[in-house]
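Ticket #4471: structure output looks truncated?

Reporter: J.K.
Steps to reproduce: submitted the chain below (293 residues) through the standard prediction queue, then opened the result file.
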Amino acid sequence: EEEAAARNLCYIKEEWDGPTEYYPIFRYHLWDILDKDIKESATTLGYDRNSWNQVGSAEVEKHSYSALSSKKKKAADDMGFTDDTWDCWQNHYEDYYWSELEEFGVLQNIKAFGWTEVSWDDLRGIGHNRHPKDWDTDWEDLSRDLQEAAQNLCYFKETWDDLYLTQWDCASADYYHFEWDELKEKGVQGYFISLGWNKKSWDGDSDPPATEELPWNELSKEQRIAARQICYTKSTWVGTSEKKKKGGIIAGGVIVCLLFVIAAIGVLKLKKKKSMRDDGAVRTQPNLHAVAV
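Returned output as attached by the reporter:
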């Protein structure tokens, strides 16, 4: 159950276990909600709405970071990529020769799918019709061992199955209602620390960090990357302390509203002077946790 919950928050094993590099969650936001600076960098890299929303389809993703032009490297850097995150999450090491894969520690994962040196090196040329069978198998039909091998190549279900971004179940999560230790369990506490939070400030025992008063453009690059990792964009950036306040206000408002509804129902029952019995009907509750990517 915990693993399923982590996947619903866009995490995979490597990210959950504590990677040395950021998981580039900004890459999986829909084109139409991208911040202006991210969209400009993506355009420099050759993306448009269609190729961005169809992860893996852009020509630039066929190239390793080292093969990018200086201009495109800068655009990738500005977005928050590094050479390591680009090669893994964007290219999945497919632009490297077999002899180079050992350096990245992924050769065994590639061998697990049935690749050989000849077939892999052909992949970089004309060999796209020579994939091993398991390489083209849907995620759900892969064995657990092969799913883990794919994860070590920075694939997860949605990217492996070539799903359009609008088909993803993954959505941004609001963390304002979590306890401090729960943030660590969710794998996001480090990002809040980058934004200046600690246990005392999170619990309300000290003032919130200075970043709470800063507009997006005044955050440092590291802080903007951290904010994106917890699913903020420039257009949705609101200080976490404000989110916590709003969460309390919303929850309080809902409770008051429900009390009014209950009272109104009681009045109607009295006016109708009609005995009511439980008919077993299912009554849906309002969705108080709706989120947007």
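Triage note (M.O.): checked the attachment and the full token line is present. The chain has a mean pLDDT of 75.
Status: closed, working as intended.
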